[in-house]
Each structure stands twice: as structure tokens, then as C-alpha cells.
Design a protein that fits this description.
This protein is mostly helical. It is built from 5 helices and 2 strands, in the order ααβααβα. It has a single domain, classed as EF-hand (Recoverin, domain 1). The protein is elongated. The protein binds calcium ion (2 copies). The site of one calcium ion has 7 residues, from strand 2.
Amino acid sequence: MMHKFCLVAITAVLLTACASLPRFTAPFPEVDSNGDGVIEWQEFKTRYPDSDAKAFLEADRNKNGDITPEEWQFFIEMQAS
Ligand SMILES: [Ca+2]
Ligand SMILES: [Ca+2]
């Protein structure tokens, strides 16, 4: 009985952890901290210290090393779907 309760509790914690994964929904200007019109890796990392390069690369659709407002917008919409 107790064992089953533990399993349920662990499952609930895991589900909550999944639901609270970092989501990159900040407005573009908030991440583009130097205001030059693109988000660089350093800016992304500063805004989202817990995230890894994978998310940045995913957002940088044309893989040129920075994220334009269009790429950022697309990335936000992609997460929402
Ligand atoms: Ca910038
Ligand atoms: Ca890009």
C-alpha cells in the first residue's frame, strides 16, 4: 500500500518536473541584452543559464550562430504547439 503510494508520488513529481522545463518565451528584446538585433549564444546563456546549446541551435534555424527576431518568434511558436 505504502509502496504504491510512493510510486504515485514519484510519478507526480516527474510529471511536474516535465511541465516546468524551461520554456523560452521571453520577448526578443529581453534576451537581446546588447540590443544589436540578434541573440548571441552568450546572451541566450545569460538569460537562460540552465539551458544547453541544443536549445540555442534549435532556435538558430539557419545555423549562422545568432538568432534573429524571426527565428526567435518561430522558436516560441514551435514550443507553444
Ligand atoms: Ca545581441
Ligand atoms: Ca540564425
